Amino acid sequence: LFFFLFFCLDHEIVRKFTYFFIFPPPSIQVNPMPYVLRYDTDRVPPVLRNYLKGIGWQEYDEEIPADEQPPWNLWWKSARFTVSQLNGAVYPRQRLNHFPKSSEITKKDTLLRNLRRMKGVHGPVCDILPASFILPGEYVKFCQAFATARDSGREPIWICKPSELSRGRKIFLFKDIGSLSYDCPSVVQSYIERPLLLSGYKFDFRVYVLVTSFQPLRVYIYRNFLVRFGTEKYNISDLSNVCSHLTNTSLNKFAPGCDANKEGIGEGCKWDAKRFISWLEPHGLPMSLLWQRIETVVNVTLLSICSAIPTHTPCFELYGFDLLIDNQFKPWLLEVNFSPALQIDGPADELIKGPLVADMIATLNISEGDDVDGDNDSPSNQKPARSPDSSKKSNLANTTKSSRNRVVREVQKHREKNRFLDTAKGDFDMCFPFNSETEAASQSLAACPTTERDIAMRVVFSEIKKREIPAHHRCRALSKKIFSEQHNNSSTLSTSPAPAPVVSKYNALSSIEAKLPLLPLTTPPNMHRPSFQKKRTTFADRKRPAAARVAK
User: Fold this and answer.
1) In this structure, what is the dihedral angle of CA atoms 247, 250, 255, 257, given to the nearest 10 degrees?
2) Tens of pLDDT along 111-134?
3) With left for phi above 0 and alpha for psi between -120 and 50, is residue 24 left, alpha or beta?
4) Strand partners, 227
């Protein structure tokens, strides 16, 4: 039909119309923009940079003016972002790897305060930290707890950790309070003396958690976690042996026993999740049960700060949760890492951290999440970049202030409409919300006033308790069964020996307590309220002078 109109009809408009559809002009063939990575100098993980370069990303040049190069799509920093940097993410498809105020759980003292507040309101389900004290502010309380334990005939072990240091620096164990010395704000915790051991070696988990939104809360957990070992066998009598009690890789990779062929572990000090699961499940403990309790620890920790984090859609956060498993298969939270190390030091890191970065980029959906024009071009199909003059984003920087604000409002409106285009990819699983009730409650936490937020938070924790209480009882029953059978056959699953019994009046109570049935992890509603409410004074007390009121 087009050829008939073109050759038979002698009209200029018809000829132009038919020629337009047969031979479209070159301006319609739009060359997509490249994806750009911006990062701190010498602080970006090489595995992240190499992966993004391999799929066609470019690097942002700090020396070139911003209007002469395409805008960045992912800004990766090991430190926190300033307010101006956070507000500078106005273009579509831009992500920053830190939320504002997200360090509320990465510092040990603020983590302890947040979890104490949650435990006072929601009960023992939030008991995921050992008994802890913040120094120097709570030194008197620690002395009272130390004296109480000494008077009862026990000699517990304590561990001192600096609040803002990482990689095992300045951490030490002590029994005598005279050995406690610190030169910075620190946290003293009751040491878990009976951890789960693997062939006599202590270990912990490094679990990677991706948070794409705090209001409402959306959490993804990475199934392929990292298992870190101490390079010397666990010995409770030698508190000065750091490689026996601490599992930090930054300490153990320089130890003499790291490259040795250790019994049951082999060379090195790390395992991946598949190797650990293949060792654990033949002993009778399903990993799905333990993983469910780990998800509870992650959810409780992040719920403690979700209302304090301001809504900032372009941000995401990758946390590193360090957890220790005791002899009753209960996971204890050791700390939360702000920027977990992604350097590759061995074969276990190659199996975990490379796929972790790829699954993280796929889960964030940077190529689809905030594209205003609806273009869903994958980074692997990108062509060379256009010149800055033909770039729509570069022209945006040269427009007036009013038109720029209009585009910013359109981008923010589109982000609010399509803010949950992130989906779990690869080994990432949705950790929160985990059912329809928690999803509705998390939406209420972000949109409702304070009174309704409390109701929504109670709904969330009631659902968490429904999962945690049966898992708690089942783990305790399995631990008794497994360790009772362990005496009859040789097994690599072990725990540290029990401390020597102390002859005191509390032994009779402990024998009676052992015969009691397991109690649920719930408390009466009136015990959920904090006990630090101010006492009300009467009118007669106000008329008396202060010295008389104190004497009374």
Assistant:
1) 50
2) 999 999 999 999 999 999 999 999
3) beta
4) 205, 271
